[in-house]
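Exercise 3.2. Students should predict the tertiary structure of the chain below and write it as structure tokens, then compare their answer with the key that follows.

Predict this chain's 3D structure.
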Amino acid sequence: MATSKTIVLPEPDQLKKIFQDIGTTEEKIDVEVKTLVEWMRKQPHLPNPDDERRIRMFLIMCKNSLERTKESLDQYYTIKSMVPEFFSDRDPTSPSLVRSMGISIFIPLPKLTPEGHRISLSRLRDPSGIDNYEFLDYVKVNFMSIDIRLSKLDMFKKETFIFDLKHFSLSLLTTVVPHVKKFIYCATTAYPLRIHQVHIVNMPTYAQSMVNMVLGILKKKIASRVSAISVRRLSYGSGMVNIDGFDIP
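Answer key:
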């Protein structure tokens, strides 16, 4: 079983299935990555690729389409320069980001699902620090996490997100609303993630209007995969999420 830090990477049979699902092989992916590297080097507005891992993951997320991958890489680097509030000042040791990581978390669970999907969990870590919660810092840390995973650590087929809204007060949500549209745009345009499911748990009734707004912004295909779950018990540990007694690896 391969691991990368605390992330468990796909088993050989899972990896083979990922490539089969997009109609390619690992050997063909290697060749196409070289093609994309050369393409990037010829684009004056794009940086020289510093590693091939990010390009490889973009190609897999774009289902082995060279043209879609080129478009996605172009959007990724363009958006990063257009939205500095999300993509600049990314020092993880800065006081603001250290504070954000102490208040909230956005983490991938170590184990893949049997289908090769990665589950990522977002929740408040320390409700007592809610008065210092800054959504822009939260988004910045989220995107930094995804960047690291795509370029250095991770390999997966699709992604499932679990957003735990426990302890989210009405006043906190009102600070989030002004930035939601730009956040959704960046998350779905800069990153070619293949979203399998999005689960919202412990959602207070006053959050429904914000969720409705998000659903209206999302593409219909993604919006259809969003669900609000009513749960009696939600716990985390041992690399799993346990919902009402059922483990999600």
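Discussion points: The chain has two domains: 12-82, 91-233+242-248. The CA atoms of residues 134 and 184 lie 17 Å apart.
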